[in-house]
């Protein structure tokens, strides 16, 4: 039996991508897509060539967070063309393929895996410094599919986004162990919605982090802790409007926190 032709085609596509980063979370709603979007904005602002691939097939929020709602994908003889925010920031999401944003994607595993393969195989990114993959929450079929397709060794690593509470951290531990099992390096953990700054100099805890939060979990599991991002209405606004928080002068709380995280990655 020869090599899988799909995997060969994916390897060829990925040959023009320097770094591949997965963004993962144990649970939904912790800010994984928000972080992916702001990471893409931040890298693009540094003149890197960036691709953002949204494989959260059942809840694609990336088009909206990049200000690209209602856009469509075009096909050329090179493959599917990403939708561009700027010439150095391209985005691909199933959200661009749904006739209506309220449309539900109710697909079983094999079909989802088929689409992930197709995204990796058929999207024409060209030369990229970074491909950021916004994965669905949890450790499902799709995750195995992504890792298999990208070949564990070809991925630089995963960033895991969590909130400070135990219920979220329990799932993050599973995510970390999944990464270990499949051979994907954990680049680090971001603790999002860490606290509320209001007034902006006062940091108040929102969730119970008496268990030590993500810092303790990272210590326990021997993985890097990247930093905390406070709950910030301005960050939520940036995500709603599909803009970069770094370009918003009112985003005085979360933008510096995110900047610090991204700089030390
Ligand atoms: P996930 O991708 O983990 O499901 P999202 O990135 O979609 O989560 O975030 C869920 C919601 O929380 C979004 O409306 C987003 O704008 C908001 N949000 C995420 N992080 C923050 C934050 N630090 N401050 C304020 N709102 C946030």
Count of helix runs = 9
The amount of helix comes to 25-40%
Mean pLDDT: 91
| Overall shape | globular
What's the total count of β strands? 11
CATH class: Alpha Beta
Organism: Cajanus cajan (Pigeon pea)
Cofactor: [4Fe-4S] cluster
GO molecular function: 4 iron, 4 sulfur cluster binding; ATP binding; ATP-dependent FeS chaperone activity; metal ion binding
Protein name: Cytosolic Fe-S cluster assembly factor NBP35
How would you explain this protein's 3D organization?
- This protein is an alpha/beta fold and 265 residues long.
- The protein has a single domain, classed as Rossmann fold.
- It contains nine helices and eleven strands.
- Strands 1, 2, 5, 6, 7, 8, 9, 10 and 11 form a nine-stranded mixed beta sheet that branches. Strands 3-4 form a two-stranded antiparallel sheet.
- Helix 6 packs parallel to helix 7.
- The model has no long low-confidence stretch (mean pLDDT 91).
- The site of adenosine-5'-diphosphate has 18 residues, from helix 2, strand 9, strand 11 and helix 8.
Short description:
This protein is α/β, with parallel strands linked by helices and 265 residues long. The chain is 37% helix and 24% strand.
